Amino acid sequence: MRANVLDYSHVDDRCADVENTRSDKELSLKEFVDIILEVSTLLLESGAHCERINRNVQRIAQKTNYKVEMLISFTAVSVSVTDMGNEENIVTANKKIIHHGVHFGILTNTSLLTWELAEDRISLQELHQRIKRLKDTSRYSVWLVRLFIGIACGSLCLLAGGNLIDGAFAFVASFVGLAVRQEMIKRKFNLMVIVICSAFVTTTISGLNILSGFGYSPQTSIATSVLFLIPGVPLINSIIDLLEGYIPTGIARGAFGGFILLCIAVGMFISMTIIGINNF
Amino acid sequence: MLIDILKDALLSFFVAIGFALLFETPKKGLLVAGLLGGLGHAIRFTLLYFDFGLISATLSGTVVIGLLGIYCAHKIHTPPVVFTLPACITMIPGLYAYKTMLGCIRIYEEGTTGAKTAFLLHDTVYNFILTSSLLFSLAIGICIAALLFRKKSVKKIKKIKDLGIKIF
Lengths: 280, 168
Hints:
The structure holds two protein chains of two kinds. By secondary structure, chain A is mainly α. Chain A folds into two domains: 9-134, no CATH class; 142-275, no CATH class. In chain A, 62% of the residues lie in helices and 8% in strands. A three-stranded antiparallel sheet of chain A has the order 1-2-3, with helices on one face. Residues 1-24 of chain A have low confidence and may be disordered. By secondary structure, chain B is mostly helical. Chain B has a domain at 2-92 and 138-163. Chain B has seven helices and no strands. Chain B has helices at 2-22, 27-49, 54-76, 81-89, 94-110, 117-142, 144-148. Chain B starts with a helix and ends in a 20-residue tail after the last helix. The model of chain B has no long low-confidence stretch (mean pLDDT 84). At the A-B interface, helix 3, helix 4, helix 6, helix 9 and helix 10 of A face helix 1, helix 4, helix 5 and helix 6 of B.
């Protein structure tokens, strides 16, 4: 991300001949590129679709004398910034995406910050400071999330036509499955291995429903307890990107989501083979 | 009937809240996500009761969520996707995705000479088409604001006039 190899020495004399006295005056081109890269990778890593990233970045760029063109791919973001005061000054820089998670809190706060900038309530420097702090935005407590995901999958089971016993099986299965996933993410396993293991544990627990024969329709508890693993955000973002014209990123997100779905199927298949649910 | 609709809305309220927590929706958006999820799923349930067809019922539910999302985004000052996505997740075609996957496993187990091979292939493809169309209608509902209104940002959408259609 640090584009140190580029020579920025010519940037300093830019401020002298730009008569525009706006907030960008003390900000060098390099710092501006840093802000843009930071914002766009942060958004992409917390599950924003491409048009939202572009909108946020253009909102920042409106306030300055720079023109921003960006290429948003699935694995990296590339930005070219042109100084409109002196069009010889162009910087292109890339930044790699570390992981693809979902964090709508970061997404909301970034959007609010860029709007505050657009309405002249904060300066560009202040935005830079606060964007850096956004990475540590607090998360909900893991136990709260596990409990509510359990309730959510239990409710999905009831919606799909199971009775309360099926719902209880789905609750326990998704509760434990999510715990497995979160603990494995903490220990930095490969994402696909995490999904397979989590789907395996979840299906094994809800498969006990078929083996024991307590429930009314045991299939629904198996089908709904793994739903917390479904990559809803990548899949829906994929279609939004396709609708809005970011075809390559849309296809990449679709492939990512599809591969996670395949891993869920592998985990479920292993579990079903081991406990011998053949009459599913 | 009314009791059924209310029960459906209550259950999907909890589904939406659970997924909103998983996606780290800010606190002020949680309740909105739950309410929109309940409303959208109840609309789908009602339309299904009147034989509307699964895909059109789902599309109606998500479009209502997407349009109400514009209003709520102005009220609580968040981007709409933060709560419309968990709300739409309540209608995610999990059961059909599961059936598609089981169909693939069964096709493998039947081999090429099994008696049910032709039916299995048809069933699996049908479930796959249903899954992807339902997913597509969820996405349409979520970005309905960007599709219908010509403004790029939801914050700019303030009046019906922004729809760009001259009624009178």
